[in-house]
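Bumping with the actual sequence this time:
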Amino acid sequence: MLWTVISRDDFGFGYAAGREREALYRSAISQAARWLKMRGLSPSQARERSRRHLALLADRYPQQRERLEGLARALGADVHEVTAAALVLASLPGSGCTNFAAVPPATADGKIYVSWNFDLSPFFRLLMGRLPLYVRDVAGAKPYVCLGLPVLFGIGVMNSDGLSACVNSVGSMDGGEGLTFFELNNLAMETQSTVEGAVSVWRDNPREVLPGLAVAILMNANCIFADMGGDAAVIEYSHHHLAVEKASEHEGVLASANHYQFLDRRLAGGADPRKEKVIAGSFARLARMWELLDIFRGRIDKDIAFIIARDHGLNYSALAEFGMDRSPYEERVDDATICCHPWNFFRHLRRGEILEALVEMNVARTLNSVVMDPGRCTIYITPGNPCRHQHVPVWVGDVLRMEWADRAREEIDYRPDWRPRIVTRRKGVFRRPQPSRGSELVRSAGLRFFGALDRALSAGLVEG
């Protein structure tokens, strides 16, 4: 079920991934070049930026540099071009995402749970498919499951030691060059087993943050990590500032959305919902998530995690400090529910608010709900909104060579070799990991369309 890239070295990993998905990578790199042009960066400036980043990788994360060179070789491209694409993809149009972690004593069964509602434009299905998980297995590093696309961008969600993670995009004004959040996450998943180890990766390395005003640009990410020892933490950061909040300070639960809650926004320059109205939904989603975690604390198991992930409730209490009072019986704030839908799309259209309608359609959509259950060597994932699709269990105990896999087999309620059939009216054209030439062409056309839409959205997203 999972696309697994196995390699004896990092160069070979990049090369193998590029050869297997050549058309898709070419489309992604071509689209990245368009984004660079849209942002006014000349080819010479992009090359110089890539050169500096490759020099940083050689010092801080040489494995990633080798992978970029392997991918470039597979595509017959210049490594600076591929690196520029990777940097652009680290500042993609922003996702939503509402996440949580639950560890003892908040869990009913003593297990560890990390939940990620992956909210992003539906056009990204063209790039990643309906079940966008793959496995990185490179000699000398811990194998781990990723969400995304190898080398260019991918977030590690669970490694062989059970370290589990998820991210939320967040805007910041405190910027500078360093390792992107993709690279920081991958470095942690490849080398660390504990939350403390993961935190040290952020603390000990320069952090790449691209400052800006529009939350349509994914400049940065809040991160949640949990380990098999029952420790969990939220990492919020900008280029110069870092805040770490532990689940032990909240009776075993943590929640995160698309704004800073623990890092002082006066330092990092976080978004203000009065100016950037699309971020108001993040405050509503986070308040609702904390509300549900308080309700279920001490009773959380995988079924409760699924219930939380598919929630459509409203909580506007966090917006009160900004003078944005809203009754739950009024029209919903855009992007305001944990299980995310473009609720107001047609209302915006009826009022002639074309830009607002397109913005909501672009950001208010849960593409996948992912629940990590490392104790049972399982990742549960939906191929769409969790309110409309069941969580499909994916057994990773064998592919990750988890030491407790034999014990976990006795606890799971499905067959480890079970392969679900995901039915789709698109006849599988957007499914991976068995692309056809036709499906690759469809993805390429979709990426070009998405790039045009993004240019229209980002031009008018922020009000003065």
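The tokens above came from a reply further down the thread. The first strand starts at residue 3 and ends at 7.
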